[in-house]
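Example for tutorial group B:
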Protein backbone atom coordinates (compact mmCIF):
# COMPACT_ATOMS: atom_id res chain seq x y z
CA UNK A 1 0.00 0.00 0.00
CA UNK A 2 1.69 3.12 -1.25
CA UNK A 3 0.81 6.78 -0.89
CA UNK A 4 1.82 9.40 -3.42
CA UNK A 5 1.13 13.12 -3.49
CA UNK A 6 0.80 15.47 -6.45
CA UNK A 7 -0.08 19.09 -6.90
CA UNK A 8 -2.51 18.19 -9.69
CA UNK A 9 -4.23 14.88 -10.34
CA UNK A 10 -6.41 14.08 -13.35
CA UNK A 11 -8.58 11.02 -12.78
CA UNK A 12 -9.33 9.40 -16.14
CA UNK A 13 -6.89 9.15 -19.02
CA UNK A 14 -9.01 9.85 -22.09
CA UNK A 15 -9.42 12.76 -24.48
CA UNK A 16 -9.82 15.47 -21.82
CA UNK A 17 -6.85 14.23 -19.80
CA UNK A 18 -4.54 14.40 -22.82
CA UNK A 19 -5.59 17.90 -23.83
CA UNK A 20 -5.38 19.07 -20.20
CA UNK A 21 -1.82 17.72 -19.94
CA UNK A 22 -0.79 19.60 -23.07
CA UNK A 23 -2.29 22.83 -21.69
CA UNK A 24 -0.49 22.39 -18.34
CA UNK A 25 2.83 22.03 -20.18
CA UNK A 26 2.05 25.02 -22.36
CA UNK A 27 1.32 27.22 -19.34
CA UNK A 28 4.21 25.96 -17.21
CA UNK A 29 4.47 22.71 -15.30
CA UNK A 30 7.26 21.50 -13.01
CA UNK A 31 8.34 17.85 -13.06
CA UNK A 32 6.40 15.72 -10.58
CA UNK A 33 3.50 18.17 -10.26
CA UNK A 34 0.96 16.33 -12.44
CA UNK A 35 -0.30 12.75 -12.44
CA UNK A 36 -2.87 11.19 -14.77
CA UNK A 37 -4.52 8.07 -13.39
CA UNK A 38 -6.25 5.86 -15.96
CA UNK A 39 -7.77 2.43 -15.92
CA UNK A 40 -6.79 2.05 -19.57
CA UNK A 41 -3.37 0.58 -20.36
CA UNK A 42 -2.42 3.24 -22.91
CA UNK A 43 -1.70 6.98 -22.96
CA UNK A 44 -4.61 9.30 -23.89
CA UNK A 45 -5.83 8.86 -27.45
CA UNK A 46 -8.48 10.24 -29.79
CA UNK A 47 -11.40 7.99 -28.88
CA UNK A 48 -13.50 8.68 -32.05
CA UNK A 49 -10.96 6.68 -34.11
CA UNK A 50 -12.23 3.45 -32.49
CA UNK A 51 -15.45 3.33 -34.52
CA UNK A 52 -13.83 4.61 -37.71
CA UNK A 53 -10.23 4.02 -38.91
CA UNK A 54 -9.53 1.41 -36.22
CA UNK A 55 -11.98 -1.00 -37.88
CA UNK A 56 -10.83 -0.57 -41.50
CA UNK A 57 -9.80 -3.83 -43.17
CA UNK A 58 -6.93 -2.07 -45.00
CA UNK A 59 -4.28 0.01 -43.17
CA UNK A 60 -6.31 0.39 -39.99
CA UNK A 61 -5.48 3.13 -37.49
CA UNK A 62 -3.43 1.76 -34.59
CA UNK A 63 -1.72 3.29 -31.59
CA UNK A 64 0.58 5.13 -31.34
CA UNK A 65 -0.86 6.70 -34.53
CA UNK A 66 -3.85 8.39 -32.90
CA UNK A 67 -2.67 9.50 -29.49
CA UNK A 68 -3.90 12.99 -28.62
CA UNK A 69 -3.64 15.69 -29.88
CA UNK A 70 -3.65 14.61 -33.55
CA UNK A 71 -7.44 14.77 -33.78
CA UNK A 72 -7.37 18.56 -33.77
CA UNK A 73 -4.26 18.87 -35.90
CA UNK A 74 -1.86 19.15 -32.95
CA UNK A 75 1.33 17.42 -31.88
CA UNK A 76 0.99 13.70 -31.09
CA UNK A 77 1.68 13.09 -27.41
CA UNK A 78 3.46 9.75 -27.19
CA UNK A 79 4.06 8.10 -23.80
CA UNK A 80 7.62 9.52 -23.90
CA UNK A 81 6.22 13.05 -24.04
CA UNK A 82 4.67 12.62 -20.58
CA UNK A 83 8.00 11.34 -19.24
CA UNK A 84 9.97 14.19 -20.83
CA UNK A 85 7.60 16.68 -19.21
CA UNK A 86 7.76 15.08 -15.77
CA UNK A 87 4.12 13.96 -15.89
CA UNK A 88 3.38 10.70 -14.14
CA UNK A 89 1.16 8.55 -16.31
CA UNK A 90 -0.30 5.95 -13.98
CA UNK A 91 -1.94 3.42 -16.30
CA UNK A 92 -4.00 0.25 -15.80
CA UNK A 93 -5.03 1.75 -12.47
CA UNK A 94 -8.68 2.11 -11.52
CA UNK A 95 -9.68 4.50 -8.79
CA UNK A 96 -12.38 2.81 -6.72
CA UNK A 97 -12.81 5.41 -3.99
CA UNK A 98 -12.65 9.18 -3.93
CA UNK A 99 -12.65 11.11 -0.69
CA UNK A 100 -12.96 14.74 -1.71
CA UNK A 101 -12.87 16.01 1.89
CA UNK A 102 -9.53 14.25 2.49
CA UNK A 103 -8.31 15.09 -1.05
CA UNK A 104 -7.47 11.43 -1.63
CA UNK A 105 -8.16 8.79 -4.28
CA UNK A 106 -7.59 5.10 -3.76
CA UNK A 107 -7.32 1.88 -5.73
CA UNK A 108 -8.66 -1.56 -4.84
CA UNK A 109 -5.18 -2.66 -3.76
CA UNK A 110 -5.15 0.18 -1.23
CA UNK A 111 -2.76 2.59 -2.96
CA UNK A 112 -3.60 6.22 -2.27
CA UNK A 113 -3.07 9.32 -4.36
CA UNK A 114 -3.32 12.69 -2.67
CA UNK A 115 -3.78 15.94 -4.55
CA UNK A 116 -4.11 19.66 -4.05
CA UNK A 117 -6.21 20.12 -7.18
CA UNK A 118 -8.30 17.41 -8.83
CA UNK A 119 -9.65 17.30 -12.38
CA UNK A 120 -12.38 14.71 -12.88
CA UNK A 121 -12.20 13.38 -16.44
CA UNK A 122 -13.70 9.91 -16.13
CA UNK A 123 -15.86 10.20 -19.27
CA UNK A 124 -18.73 7.83 -19.96
CA UNK A 125 -19.39 4.15 -20.01
CA UNK A 126 -21.69 2.26 -22.36
CA UNK A 127 -25.22 1.30 -21.44
CA UNK A 128 -25.42 -2.50 -21.59
CA UNK A 129 -28.44 -4.58 -22.58
CA UNK A 130 -27.78 -6.73 -19.52
CA UNK A 131 -28.52 -3.56 -17.47
CA UNK A 132 -32.13 -4.00 -18.62
CA UNK A 133 -32.11 -7.74 -18.06
CA UNK A 134 -32.28 -8.60 -21.80
CA UNK A 135 -32.15 -12.37 -21.96
CA UNK A 136 -28.90 -13.93 -23.23
CA UNK A 137 -27.18 -10.53 -23.45
CA UNK A 138 -23.99 -11.93 -21.94
CA UNK A 139 -23.39 -14.35 -24.86
CA UNK A 140 -19.98 -14.34 -26.56
CA UNK A 141 -19.54 -12.07 -29.60
CA UNK A 142 -21.91 -9.41 -28.32
CA UNK A 143 -19.76 -6.28 -28.28
CA UNK A 144 -19.83 -2.72 -26.98
CA UNK A 145 -17.35 -0.05 -27.96
CA UNK A 146 -15.81 2.48 -25.59
CA UNK A 147 -12.13 1.69 -25.12
CA UNK A 148 -9.31 0.37 -27.26
CA UNK A 149 -9.58 -3.06 -25.60
CA UNK A 150 -13.20 -3.30 -26.76
CA UNK A 151 -12.15 -2.39 -30.29
CA UNK A 152 -9.43 -5.08 -30.28
CA UNK A 153 -11.98 -7.74 -29.33
CA UNK A 154 -14.28 -6.60 -32.12
CA UNK A 155 -11.43 -6.66 -34.66
CA UNK A 156 -10.62 -10.26 -33.65
CA UNK A 157 -14.25 -11.30 -34.05
CA UNK A 158 -14.47 -9.64 -37.48
CA UNK A 159 -11.49 -11.78 -38.55
CA UNK A 160 -12.89 -14.96 -37.00
CA UNK A 161 -16.35 -14.52 -38.55
CA UNK A 162 -15.30 -13.65 -42.11
CA UNK A 163 -18.29 -13.03 -44.40
CA UNK A 164 -20.61 -13.78 -41.48
CA UNK A 165 -23.73 -11.97 -40.30
CA UNK A 166 -23.63 -8.93 -38.06
CA UNK A 167 -26.50 -7.25 -36.24
CA UNK A 168 -26.07 -3.69 -34.99
CA UNK A 169 -28.40 -2.79 -32.14
CA UNK A 170 -28.94 0.97 -32.00
CA UNK A 171 -29.33 3.68 -34.62
CA UNK A 172 -27.24 6.49 -33.14
CA UNK A 173 -23.96 7.69 -34.64
CA UNK A 174 -22.02 4.79 -33.11
CA UNK A 175 -24.50 2.33 -34.68
CA UNK A 176 -24.24 4.09 -38.04
CA UNK A 177 -20.43 4.18 -37.98
CA UNK A 178 -20.22 0.54 -36.89
CA UNK A 179 -22.77 -0.59 -39.48
CA UNK A 180 -20.59 0.95 -42.18
CA UNK A 181 -17.35 -0.44 -40.73
CA UNK A 182 -18.70 -4.00 -40.59
CA UNK A 183 -20.10 -3.73 -44.10
CA UNK A 184 -16.70 -2.56 -45.38
CA UNK A 185 -15.33 -5.71 -43.72
CA UNK A 186 -17.69 -7.75 -45.90
CA UNK A 187 -20.11 -8.82 -43.22
CA UNK A 188 -23.80 -9.10 -43.96
CA UNK A 189 -25.13 -6.24 -41.81
CA UNK A 190 -28.57 -5.62 -40.31
CA UNK A 191 -29.27 -2.58 -38.15
CA UNK A 192 -32.13 -2.56 -35.63
CA UNK A 193 -33.52 0.43 -33.77
CA UNK A 194 -36.85 1.37 -32.21
CA UNK A 195 -37.15 4.94 -33.51
CA UNK A 196 -38.87 5.89 -36.79
CA UNK A 197 -35.49 7.01 -38.20
CA UNK A 198 -31.80 6.92 -37.32
CA UNK A 199 -30.14 9.44 -34.98
CA UNK A 200 -33.42 11.08 -33.99
CA UNK A 201 -31.74 13.23 -31.37
CA UNK A 202 -30.13 15.25 -34.15
CA UNK A 203 -31.43 14.10 -37.53
CA UNK A 204 -34.74 15.23 -38.95
CA UNK A 205 -36.72 12.76 -41.07
CA UNK A 206 -35.26 14.48 -44.16
CA UNK A 207 -31.66 14.07 -43.06
CA UNK A 208 -32.18 10.48 -41.92
CA UNK A 209 -33.88 9.50 -45.19
CA UNK A 210 -30.61 10.21 -47.00
CA UNK A 211 -28.46 8.06 -44.68
CA UNK A 212 -30.96 5.20 -44.53
CA UNK A 213 -31.25 5.23 -48.34
CA UNK A 214 -27.46 5.35 -48.72
CA UNK A 215 -26.99 2.45 -46.28
CA UNK A 216 -29.65 0.39 -48.07
CA UNK A 217 -27.86 0.99 -51.37
CA UNK A 218 -24.71 -0.36 -49.73
CA UNK A 219 -26.63 -3.55 -48.91
CA UNK A 220 -27.32 -2.86 -45.25
CA UNK A 221 -30.66 -4.11 -44.03
CA UNK A 222 -32.47 -1.67 -41.69
CA UNK A 223 -35.23 -2.75 -39.32
CA UNK A 224 -36.97 0.08 -37.49
CA UNK A 225 -39.64 0.33 -34.84
CA UNK A 226 -38.57 -2.65 -32.78
CA UNK A 227 -35.90 -3.67 -30.27
CA UNK A 228 -33.79 -6.69 -29.36
CA UNK A 229 -35.43 -8.53 -26.49
CA UNK A 230 -33.25 -11.62 -26.30
CA UNK A 231 -30.32 -13.57 -27.73
CA UNK A 232 -29.82 -17.28 -28.28
CA UNK A 233 -26.38 -18.83 -28.34
CA UNK A 234 -24.79 -22.14 -29.44
CA UNK A 235 -23.12 -24.76 -27.27
CA UNK A 236 -19.90 -22.63 -27.19
CA UNK A 237 -21.87 -19.76 -25.74
CA UNK A 238 -21.50 -17.76 -28.97
CA UNK A 239 -24.43 -15.63 -30.07
CA UNK A 240 -26.47 -17.16 -32.89
CA UNK A 241 -29.72 -15.26 -33.02
CA UNK A 242 -31.20 -11.94 -32.05
CA UNK A 243 -34.84 -12.08 -31.00
CA UNK A 244 -36.84 -8.95 -31.78
CA UNK A 245 -39.85 -7.63 -29.93
CA UNK A 246 -41.96 -7.80 -33.11
CA UNK A 247 -41.45 -11.60 -33.12
CA UNK A 248 -38.78 -11.75 -35.81
CA UNK A 249 -35.51 -13.50 -35.23
CA UNK A 250 -32.22 -12.55 -36.97
CA UNK A 251 -29.20 -14.81 -37.52
CA UNK A 252 -26.05 -13.29 -36.09
CA UNK A 253 -22.37 -14.22 -35.74
CA UNK A 254 -21.50 -10.82 -34.30
CA UNK A 255 -23.73 -8.34 -32.47
CA UNK A 256 -22.59 -4.81 -31.73
CA UNK A 257 -24.64 -2.75 -29.33
CA UNK A 258 -24.60 1.04 -29.38
CA UNK A 259 -27.52 2.19 -27.29
CA UNK A 260 -25.95 5.15 -25.52
CA UNK A 261 -23.65 6.10 -22.71
CA UNK A 262 -23.80 7.11 -19.08
CA UNK A 263 -21.35 9.53 -17.41
CA UNK A 264 -19.03 7.88 -14.88
CA UNK A 265 -19.67 9.89 -11.73
CA UNK A 266 -20.48 7.23 -9.14
CA UNK A 267 -17.12 7.77 -7.34
CA UNK A 268 -18.25 11.26 -6.40
CA UNK A 269 -21.93 10.62 -5.56
CA UNK A 270 -23.08 12.44 -2.46
CA UNK A 271 -19.89 14.51 -2.34
CA UNK A 272 -20.48 16.92 -5.17
CA UNK A 273 -23.49 18.67 -6.67
CA UNK A 274 -25.03 16.96 -9.69
CA UNK A 275 -27.20 18.25 -12.51
CA UNK A 276 -28.74 16.56 -15.56
CA UNK A 277 -26.92 13.31 -14.85
CA UNK A 278 -23.50 14.93 -14.64
CA UNK A 279 -21.33 16.84 -12.19
CA UNK A 280 -22.49 20.43 -11.98
CA UNK A 281 -19.86 23.04 -12.79
CA UNK A 282 -19.71 26.75 -13.46
CA UNK A 283 -18.35 28.28 -16.66
CA UNK A 284 -14.83 27.64 -15.32
CA UNK A 285 -15.48 23.91 -14.77
CA UNK A 286 -15.27 24.33 -11.00
CA UNK A 287 -17.52 21.91 -9.15
CA UNK A 288 -19.33 22.64 -5.89
CA UNK A 289 -16.19 21.51 -4.01
CA UNK A 290 -13.16 23.84 -3.87
CA UNK A 291 -10.14 22.68 -5.92
CA UNK A 292 -12.19 20.05 -7.76
CA UNK A 293 -12.87 20.53 -11.47
CA UNK A 294 -14.90 18.33 -13.84
CA UNK A 295 -14.46 18.31 -17.64
CA UNK A 296 -15.52 16.41 -20.74
CA UNK A 297 -18.47 14.01 -20.76
CA UNK A 298 -19.06 14.20 -16.99
CA UNK A 299 -19.50 17.98 -16.71
CA UNK A 300 -22.88 19.71 -16.75
CA UNK A 301 -21.93 23.33 -17.36
CA UNK A 302 -23.56 26.63 -18.37
CA UNK A 303 -23.76 26.81 -22.14
CA UNK A 304 -23.55 30.59 -22.33
CA UNK A 305 -24.82 30.88 -25.89
CA UNK A 306 -28.17 29.32 -24.96
CA UNK A 307 -28.24 30.38 -21.30
CA UNK A 308 -28.80 26.80 -20.22
CA UNK A 309 -27.01 24.06 -18.26
CA UNK A 310 -25.96 21.22 -20.55
CA UNK A 311 -23.89 18.07 -20.55
CA UNK A 312 -22.17 17.40 -23.89
CA UNK A 313 -20.71 14.04 -24.95
CA UNK A 314 -18.62 15.25 -27.88
CA UNK A 315 -14.92 15.14 -28.44
CA UNK A 316 -14.54 18.83 -29.31
CA UNK A 317 -16.04 19.85 -25.97
CA UNK A 318 -13.86 17.29 -24.14
CA UNK A 319 -10.78 18.98 -25.61
CA UNK A 320 -11.90 22.55 -25.05
CA UNK A 321 -13.33 22.09 -21.54
CA UNK A 322 -10.06 20.45 -20.45
CA UNK A 323 -8.04 23.37 -21.80
CA UNK A 324 -10.39 25.84 -20.14
CA UNK A 325 -10.09 24.16 -16.70
CA UNK A 326 -6.28 24.21 -16.88
CA UNK A 327 -6.28 27.88 -17.95
CA UNK A 328 -8.52 28.65 -14.95
CA UNK A 329 -6.25 26.75 -12.54
CA UNK A 330 -3.10 28.49 -13.78
CA UNK A 331 -4.73 31.94 -13.92
CA UNK A 332 -5.94 31.55 -10.33
CA UNK A 333 -2.41 30.69 -9.18
CA UNK A 334 -1.11 33.81 -10.85
CA UNK A 335 -3.91 36.00 -9.48
CA UNK A 336 -5.41 36.51 -12.94
CA UNK A 337 -8.87 35.82 -14.24
CA UNK A 338 -10.06 34.48 -17.56
CA UNK A 339 -13.27 34.61 -19.57
CA UNK A 340 -16.10 32.20 -18.87
CA UNK A 341 -16.40 29.20 -21.25
CA UNK A 342 -18.39 30.23 -24.29
CA UNK A 343 -18.86 27.09 -26.32
CA UNK A 344 -20.49 26.60 -29.69
CA UNK A 345 -21.68 22.96 -29.81
CA UNK A 346 -19.93 21.07 -32.60
CA UNK A 347 -20.37 17.44 -33.53
CA UNK A 348 -19.33 15.34 -36.52
CA UNK A 349 -19.41 11.82 -37.85
CA UNK A 350 -17.95 9.89 -40.77
CA UNK A 351 -18.90 6.61 -42.43
CA UNK A 352 -18.26 5.12 -45.88
CA UNK A 353 -17.22 8.14 -47.96
CA UNK A 354 -19.71 10.36 -46.12
CA UNK A 355 -18.87 13.06 -43.64
CA UNK A 356 -21.02 15.60 -41.84
CA UNK A 357 -20.67 18.38 -39.33
CA UNK A 358 -23.22 20.08 -37.11
CA UNK A 359 -22.91 23.38 -35.25
CA UNK A 360 -25.25 25.07 -32.82
CA UNK A 361 -28.63 23.96 -31.55
CA UNK A 362 -31.19 21.74 -33.29
CA UNK A 363 -34.32 23.48 -32.05
CA UNK A 364 -37.13 25.28 -33.87
CA UNK A 365 -38.12 24.74 -37.47
CA UNK A 366 -35.85 22.61 -39.67
CA UNK A 367 -35.24 23.74 -43.27
CA UNK A 368 -33.68 21.16 -45.59
CA UNK A 369 -31.58 22.35 -48.53
CA UNK A 370 -29.44 20.85 -51.28
CA UNK A 371 -29.32 17.43 -52.88
CA UNK A 372 -30.17 14.69 -50.37
CA UNK A 373 -30.83 12.00 -52.95
CA UNK A 374 -28.91 8.91 -51.79
CA UNK A 375 -28.49 7.87 -55.45
CA UNK A 376 -26.59 11.06 -56.36
CA UNK A 377 -22.95 10.72 -57.35
CA UNK A 378 -21.93 13.54 -55.04
CA UNK A 379 -24.72 14.22 -52.57
CA UNK A 380 -24.43 17.48 -50.69
CA UNK A 381 -27.17 18.81 -48.48
CA UNK A 382 -27.87 20.39 -45.16
CA UNK A 383 -30.43 21.69 -42.73
CA UNK A 384 -30.90 25.00 -40.97
CA UNK A 385 -32.73 25.20 -37.68
CA UNK A 386 -34.61 28.47 -37.24
CA UNK A 387 -35.93 29.63 -33.89
CA UNK A 388 -37.60 32.99 -33.18
CA UNK A 389 -36.64 34.15 -36.67
CA UNK A 390 -32.94 33.35 -36.26
CA UNK A 391 -30.77 30.54 -37.59
CA UNK A 392 -29.50 28.71 -34.50
CA UNK A 393 -28.14 25.45 -35.89
CA UNK A 394 -26.71 24.09 -39.14
CA UNK A 395 -26.02 20.57 -40.39
CA UNK A 396 -24.01 19.92 -43.55
CA UNK A 397 -23.12 16.67 -45.34
CA UNK A 398 -20.27 16.67 -47.85
CA UNK A 399 -19.02 20.22 -47.25
CA UNK A 400 -15.57 21.67 -47.92
CA UNK A 401 -13.37 23.04 -45.14
CA UNK A 402 -14.44 26.59 -46.02
CA UNK A 403 -18.12 25.66 -46.04
CA UNK A 404 -17.85 24.06 -42.60
CA UNK A 405 -16.13 27.21 -41.37
CA UNK A 406 -19.01 29.25 -42.79
CA UNK A 407 -21.72 27.18 -41.08
CA UNK A 408 -19.86 27.36 -37.76
CA UNK A 409 -19.78 31.14 -38.06
CA UNK A 410 -23.47 31.19 -38.94
CA UNK A 411 -24.43 29.15 -35.87
CA UNK A 412 -22.43 31.53 -33.70
CA UNK A 413 -23.74 34.75 -35.27
CA UNK A 414 -27.38 33.54 -35.46
CA UNK A 415 -28.50 35.83 -38.31
CA UNK A 416 -32.17 36.70 -38.77
CA UNK A 417 -34.13 35.22 -41.65
CA UNK A 418 -37.12 36.83 -43.25
CA UNK A 419 -38.47 33.96 -45.32
CA UNK A 420 -38.00 30.26 -44.72
CA UNK A 421 -38.78 29.54 -48.40
CA UNK A 422 -36.05 31.94 -49.43
CA UNK A 423 -33.64 30.26 -46.98
CA UNK A 424 -34.41 26.83 -48.45
CA UNK A 425 -33.86 28.23 -51.97
CA UNK A 426 -30.60 29.95 -51.10
CA UNK A 427 -29.30 26.86 -49.32
CA UNK A 428 -25.61 26.90 -48.58
CA UNK A 429 -25.07 30.28 -50.24
CA UNK A 430 -26.96 31.85 -47.31
CA UNK A 431 -24.18 30.63 -44.97
CA UNK A 432 -21.43 31.89 -47.26
CA UNK A 433 -22.83 35.43 -47.07
CA UNK A 434 -22.66 35.75 -43.28
P1 LIG B 1 -13.03 9.61 -22.19
O1 LIG B 1 -12.30 9.96 -23.42
O2 LIG B 1 -14.03 8.51 -22.24
O3 LIG B 1 -11.96 9.24 -21.09
C1 LIG B 1 -12.30 8.80 -19.80
C2 LIG B 1 -11.15 7.99 -19.23
O4 LIG B 1 -11.33 7.80 -17.84
C3 LIG B 1 -11.00 6.60 -19.83
O5 LIG B 1 -9.66 6.37 -20.12
C4 LIG B 1 -11.49 5.69 -18.71
O6 LIG B 1 -10.90 4.41 -18.73
C5 LIG B 1 -11.00 6.48 -17.50
N1 LIG B 1 -11.66 6.16 -16.24
C6 LIG B 1 -12.99 6.15 -16.00
N2 LIG B 1 -13.22 5.84 -14.71
C7 LIG B 1 -12.01 5.66 -14.14
C8 LIG B 1 -11.59 5.33 -12.82
N3 LIG B 1 -12.48 5.11 -11.83
N4 LIG B 1 -10.26 5.21 -12.57
C9 LIG B 1 -9.36 5.43 -13.55
N5 LIG B 1 -9.71 5.75 -14.82
C10 LIG B 1 -11.02 5.86 -15.10
N6 LIG B 1 -17.48 12.47 -30.38
C11 LIG B 1 -17.57 13.28 -31.47
O7 LIG B 1 -17.76 14.49 -31.32
N7 LIG B 1 -17.46 12.77 -32.74
C12 LIG B 1 -17.26 11.44 -32.98
O8 LIG B 1 -17.17 11.01 -34.12
C13 LIG B 1 -17.15 10.56 -31.85
N8 LIG B 1 -16.91 9.25 -32.02
C14 LIG B 1 -16.85 8.42 -30.93
C15 LIG B 1 -16.66 7.05 -31.11
C16 LIG B 1 -16.61 6.18 -30.04
C17 LIG B 1 -16.41 4.70 -30.27
C18 LIG B 1 -16.78 6.69 -28.71
C19 LIG B 1 -16.75 5.75 -27.53
C20 LIG B 1 -16.96 8.06 -28.52
C21 LIG B 1 -17.00 8.94 -29.61
N9 LIG B 1 -17.20 10.31 -29.44
C22 LIG B 1 -17.28 11.14 -30.54
C23 LIG B 1 -17.35 10.89 -28.09
C24 LIG B 1 -16.01 11.34 -27.52
O9 LIG B 1 -15.03 10.38 -27.75
C25 LIG B 1 -16.16 11.61 -26.04
O10 LIG B 1 -17.08 12.68 -25.88
C26 LIG B 1 -14.81 11.98 -25.39
O11 LIG B 1 -13.92 10.90 -25.47
C27 LIG B 1 -15.01 12.39 -23.93
O12 LIG B 1 -13.78 12.64 -23.36
P2 LIG B 1 -13.54 12.41 -21.79
O13 LIG B 1 -12.11 12.74 -21.52
O14 LIG B 1 -14.61 13.10 -21.03
O15 LIG B 1 -13.79 10.85 -21.57
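The residue assignment follows.
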Amino acid sequence: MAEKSFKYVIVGGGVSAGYAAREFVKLGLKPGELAIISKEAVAPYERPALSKGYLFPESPARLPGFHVCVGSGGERLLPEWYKENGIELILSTEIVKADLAAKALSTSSGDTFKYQILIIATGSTVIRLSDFGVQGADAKNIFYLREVDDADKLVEAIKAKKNGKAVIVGGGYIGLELGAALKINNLDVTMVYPEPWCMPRLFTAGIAAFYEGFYKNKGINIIKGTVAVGFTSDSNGEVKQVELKDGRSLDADIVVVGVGGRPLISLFKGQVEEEKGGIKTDGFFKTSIPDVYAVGDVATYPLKLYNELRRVEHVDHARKSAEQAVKVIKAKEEGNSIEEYDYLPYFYSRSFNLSWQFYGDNVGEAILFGDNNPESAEPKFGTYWVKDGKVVGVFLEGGTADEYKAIAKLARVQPSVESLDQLAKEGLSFASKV
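The chain is about 25% helix and 30% strand. Compare this with the pattern of hydrophobic and polar residues in the output above.
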